[in-house]
Amino acid sequence: MHIFATLARGGPDLFRGWLRFGGALLSGSLPARLRELVILRTAYRFDGRYEWAQHLEIGAAQGVTPSEMVALGGDLGSVEWSELELASLRAVDDTADCGAVTDATWETLAVHLDERALIELLMLIAHYMMLTTVLRSLRIELEPRAEAMARSVDAGPMV
Questions:
Q1: Which is nearest to 74 in space by CA: 155, 150, 149, 159?
Q2: What is the pTM of this model?
Q3: Helices 115-138 and 83-98, interaxial angle, to 10°?
Q4: What kind of fold does domain 2-151 have according to CATH?
């Protein structure tokens, strides 16, 4: 994948540190489906074409449906989410719109997640916000398979 070959050129210490951090988020305590919903919404809200394209297939493997993918790349109200899922997606939107999660969103999240999971959720959003910016600035090209997958979804930063 182009991401690894490119980011490795930043030096071994930085690359290994990023791999450990990203790996910890991908294998963290949040449910895998919720993690992928948040990653996809973050990729959409922060114009992360590369991460959007890469995580569509991963999301599908975790139960994200085609109609949910379209909603994640546009209007969240077009499908029905669980209370936790919607609050997590609102946390992404709050971060994009206000720079921080609002009190109302936080209160809903705190009903469903313990302190550790709340912090992990915020770190997940922040990591993918950072990653989309870095990858966009480096102009990393999509692999053909990922681009084809992204083009099959009529929503998101590819549209």
A1: 155
A2: 0.91
A3: 50
A4: AhpD-like (1.20.1290)
